[in-house]
Amino acid sequence: MKKGNNSKMAVLGLLCHKPMTGYDIKKTIQQSTGMFWSESYGQIYPTLKKLTREGLAVVEQSKKRGTASKTVYAPTAKGRNTIKTWLAQPAKTNIIRSETLLKIFFGGQADLRTTQMHIEQELADSRQVLAMLTSAEKMLAQRSNGQRNLTDFHFKLTIAYGKKSLAAAVHWCEESLRKCSEWEKSEGNNR
Fold this sequence. Notes:
The protein contains 7 helices and 2 strands; from the N terminus they run H-H-H-E-E-H-H-H-H. By secondary structure, it is mostly helical.
């Protein structure tokens, strides 16, 4: 699959859940896939136009309210088949891209306090997203009310992955801060 097709599949996949505007897609990403997949408005709107050109989505409705227009996109049968085909293909190797880890890797060129600041921010961010996922998990449980739903089942699988990953990140941050503190103490003793 060509580079950039994952953005196309992310947007198309969301449309397969329900018709949406570009704004709705961005908001849904922030509340759902944002922990592992993000798209900007600068990616979403051109992708929607491309999906429409390729016959994978259609404009379901376009309403004008004052000066603002609301364009809702929906997948076509071809779009739904494209998602099914994409889902059947093996995923490419996932590579973690973390600016925090990159800065920590090169942290020896700065000072320990800078590294601790990055780890503290990572810890705060991880705890915040972990809390959001816990809320999303509870909301899904209430929504399903004990009923089996394949879509919600898949949402729950990704939430579980996110929670375990974030719990590991929190553990790593706490341990790393402790190690930084120990390093700082040992350096003070060596002076």
